[in-house]
Structure formats: structure tokens, C-alpha cells
Amino acid sequence: MIIIGIAGGTGSGKTTVVKNIVDSLPTESVAVIPQDSYYNHQWNVPEELRKLTNFDHPNAFDWPLFEEQIEMLRNGHPIEQPTYSYLTCTRQQETVHVDPKEVIIIEGIMALYDQRLRELMDLKIYVDAASDERLLRVIQRDIAERGHSLDMLVDKYRNVLKPMHDEFIEPTKQFADIIIPNYGGEKRAVEMVRQYILGCIGR
Predict the structure, then answer these.
(1) Got the DSSP string for 96-120?
(2) Mean pLDDT, the chain, whole residue set
(3) How high is the pLDDT of residue 200?
(4) pLDDT band at 138 (very low <50, low <70, confident <90, very high)
(5) Cα–Cα nearest to 200, from 25, 15, 79
(6) Predicted local distance difference test score (pLDDT) of residue 49
(7) pLDDT above 70 for 183
(8) Nearest 10 degrees: CA dihedral of 32, 175, 197, 129?
(9) How far apart are alpha carbons 136 and 153 in whole angstroms?
(10) Is the separation of the CB atoms in 148 and 202 below 8 Å?
(11) Neighbours of 149 (CB within 10 A)
């Protein structure tokens, strides 16, 4: 088994890189674990306060559960991955059954933030993109998919996304074994990662 962490700022292109890696590997050999699944449950918090959650701060995540479940997978045990709803801003009762696979990919803005989690990884990747490009991608995505207004997104970027990125996400680049600049040349990097993975799993 090989465990890969893939981090990067909001709108950096992490999801695209993960998809390209998964598509390049043998079917059913990969499990993707999204960090978004491990936001803290807020069942006892009033809904109006839940909506004030800063999802870009490390304190928003249930690190002990995240670490425990990745370690379980590494040791060959299945997990019941939590699910999270942005509509209710809390964890759902439903879980997702995940079996151990030859390749486990952990994907999220702070996938490389936690030291214990990093120690469980065999390969650490940071997907990098210029701040203006990330902002444009966030605007396009959130207007189209979430119905957010432009004014709201600009305010969110200035007051949450940018300061949190600068303080907590960008510094994790130093822990990466590979930095993928997301400007169109990522296909070559994905091919290198694919070759590395196939060598590790003996394919």
C-alpha cells in the first residue's frame, strides 16, 4: 500500500490532479479520502452559529478521527468515513464504507498540515497556483455551483481565504516531496507520479 497526501489552496486544482492520477491507475486500485469529510461535527451548535464556521482554519477539522482512520487503512482495516453537509454545516449520520486499497489518496487544503498524518504518508504533493488564478476559479465555481454573489466572494477571499491560506496552507508547501505548478504542465508531473506509484505497488 502507498498513501499519498495532496494539498493546495482553494481553487489550486487539487481535485483535477487527483482525478488525473486516479484515471491513470488500474481500476479499483485507489481510494480517495477527502479531508472535507473530517470537519468537526456540530450537532450541539445552533444552526445560525454553525454557518459562521471558518472552514479554512485547522480548528475546523477532527484531526484525531482523521489520523485514526488513515492509520486503520494503512493497517489493512476498513473504515466508515464520515460525511459532511455544507447545507447544515455539520456531520451527517450517514457514513461511507471504505476498504483498504493499494493506493490511498488524501486530498484537502490542509492534507499536509498535521504532523502525525504526514508521517503516515509515503508521498506528499502540493498543488500550487497563483493567487489571482485561484480567486478566479473560486469565483467561477461558487457562482455557478453555490449561487454566491460576486461581492460575497470577494469579501470572503479578503477576510478568510487569503489570510487563512497565507497562515496555514501555503507554509505546508515546505513538507511536500513534489510541488505541482498548476498552469498547464501538470500532465507531466502526473505521469511521473503514476510511474512512481506503479513501481511502489509492483505493477
Answers:
(1) EEE---SEEEEESTTTTT-HHHHHT
(2) 87
(3) 85
(4) low
(5) 25
(6) 79
(7) no
(8) 70
(9) 10
(10) no
(11) 10
Q: Alpha carbon of 5 to those of 9, 63, 68, 94, 123: distances in Å?
A: 14, 15, 15, 25, 6
**Angle of CA points 180, 176, 129, to nearest 5°:** 35
d(CA 125, CA 177): 6
pLDDT at 130: 72
| Cβ pair 193, 178 in contact under 8 A | yes
Cell 489493512 belongs to residue:
76
Overall average pLDDT of the 134-147 stretch? 66
Task: Report the DSSP beta bridge partners of residue 181.
Answer: 128
- Nearest CA to 37 out of 79, 99, 100 is that of 79
Contacts of 2 (CB under 8 A, 6+ apart): 102, 103, 104, 122, 123, 197, 200, 201
Q: What is the DSSP string of 31-92?
A: EEEEGGGGBPP-TTS-HHHHTT--TTSGGGB-HHHHHHHHHHHHTT--EEEEEEETTTTEEE
Q: Specify the pTM.
A: 0.88
What is the rounded distance in angstroms from the CA atom of residue 16 to the CA atom of residue 11?
10
